[in-house]
MarR family transcriptional regulator (Deinococcus arenicola), 202 residues
Amino acid sequence: MSQPVAADRLAVPASPAGETVSGKTTLGQTAALLNRIKQDWQRIRPELDASPMLTGLLLDRLGSAFARHVEQTYSAEGINSSNWDLLLTLLRSAPAQGLTHTELSELTAISGPSMTNRVTRLLNKGLVERMVSATDRRSALVRLTPQGRQLVERLLPHHIAREQGALSVLSPEELSLLTGIALKLVEHLELDAVDEDAENVG
């Protein structure tokens, strides 16, 4: 199994960045950029350890590239990633009567005002409907319309296939390692955020 390359040991071929053959880039643009940034920092601040910045940039570009790849599944329908996440949540987690805005926020980690805006956009597209709760008339429930359910069911196989295609470059062992590292990092950052919020309140 190939070993991950540390950010401070990235290397690219000696060809100039951006060189193309038949319209295709011959170098990994991100690897070339990281090496250039590393060299620039070493030139002007040789005592500085720039590896955290390089890793952060790598993660940022990875997230953006993965999102762009997956968004091709539903962008033609005028749906963005946040809308798609909401539709998937309603498909997999909502009972027949739907979910409240609070429940949707908890399942998607989206705040109240943002959730209202996203639900409204999907309402306008006819993909979801908002119903008054039978048990609490102050509470509204959101659920997929038949049109919304049909759209998600139609696009879901393509969505999964695009994600599988993006990850196919990794072996099962590499994918397991990546998942474990990603979870460890996310949990660390989430705990840091909780601690910072507590300090700000205090």
